Amino acid sequence: MRAWTVTAQDDDVRLSDVPEPVLRGGGVLVEVLAAHLPAYTRAVVQGNRGGLPVPLTLGPSCVGRVIDVAPDVFHLEPGDIVLDTALLDAGGGDEVLVGWVGLGGSGAGSERTDRMRAVWRDGVFAEKALCAKETLVKLPGAESYPDPARLAFLPWLGIAAAGLHAAGPAAGRDVAVIGATGQLGGAAVLTALAEGAATVTAVGRNEDALGRLAALDPRVRTHRLTGDRATDAAGIGPVDVAVDTLGAAPSADATMAAYDSLRGRGTLVLVGGVRQDLAVPYGDLMHRRLTLRGSWMSDQRTVTTVWNLVRSGVLDLSAVELRTTGLDDPAAALGLAERTTGLGFVALVPGPA
Ligand SMILES: NC(=O)c1ccc[n+]([C@@H]2O[C@H](COP(=O)([O-])OP(=O)(O)OC[C@H]3O[C@@H](n4cnc5c(N)ncnc54)[C@H](OP(=O)(O)O)[C@@H]3O)[C@@H](O)[C@H]2O)c1
């Protein structure tokens, strides 16, 4: 079958002919229907986000149709439509993302995560994938969803929803999304609206993308980042919840502006890829009874919640601009993904050989 592989740390992603995966204990064989291609996939392949366990078939998450299940798999059967979250959790902080970078806990990995990655290494940018049963969530009713490629956005919605839920229910509260012009930020805006936020302040640099978000719903406000912390805090808040979904920004100023914008008892949730330390003022956090939370990936319950929002039409995925690509030209596809943010995303649709 055809798959996107990476053979060494300094190698590019390549289209390769590889043997079809063979079913084994704890595994589920799926036909990949569509896989989200994150905007920063090229940076991942270039090693800028930690080491990939090479050689491997790349790809963290997808929507697929179950072809076959191992004898010890009971929650799925052939024909089911599933979401692969990539998250394999052995407990105690030992978590890996199959087919991708990123380790849970301290992020340093352990002898146990090495063993997990040795057994479950290959991802989903391929015609078929063998997935660990723990990574799969059933999507009841998805067989009749009119546009399955669009469902490849569900993993990002799940990650955004997990971040939002870390601050408690959104209903009736004022929520800000920092980095709302990115794919994860757009997902957070859609989820907050679907879950009944009173207002959603979309914060980012890209004016066009902010305009598209404003057009979604009268509850959306926008703030264009100025780079000045005090000005940005005043433009963002006051809010009850701020969710930071920024990419690898070179400073923590926008994140700290979000912190400053919180009302008393408010919560700032960190979900993004900022690689900076935060200087959080002890007395201010204490006196204003603020909460600072982190959120990584999603869990099966949250994925099911998000799927139910989509399935019921409360969260309408037609608001998201879908661009599809096949397996033929990985370099062009990664370029397209890099350029596609702001309520848009690229789905890899492997299709038949
Ligand atoms: N916690 C988790 O479980 C989890 C899961 C998946 C991803 N992530 C992280 O989430 C981050 C965002 O992912 P994504 O898919 O949304 O990526 P994306 O579509 O590329 O979005 C990146 C966002 O960051 C903004 N940004 C980048 N550099 C900036 C800067 N210097 N100053 C201000 N804003 C800046 C972009 O603003 P513009 O639109 O103005 O360029 C955009 O809003 C990634 O870095 C990733 O590491 C975390």
Automatic annotation (TrEMBL):
GO molecular function: metal ion binding; oxidoreductase activity
Ranges where the Alcohol dehydrogenase-like N-terminal domain occurs: 26-140
Pfam families cross-referenced by the UniProt entry: ADH_N (PF08240), ADH_zinc_N (PF00107)
Cofactor(s) for this UniProt protein: Zn(2+)
Keyword Amino-acid biosynthesis: no
Alcohol dehydrogenase-like C-terminal domain residues: 184-310
Keywords: Metal-binding, Oxidoreductase, Zinc
PANTHER family documented for this protein: NAD-DEPENDENT ALCOHOL DEHYDROGENASE (PTHR43350:SF17)
Family of this protein: Belongs to the zinc-containing alcohol dehydrogenase family.
Name recorded for this polypeptide: Uncharacterized protein
Organism of this sequence: Amycolatopsis rifamycinica
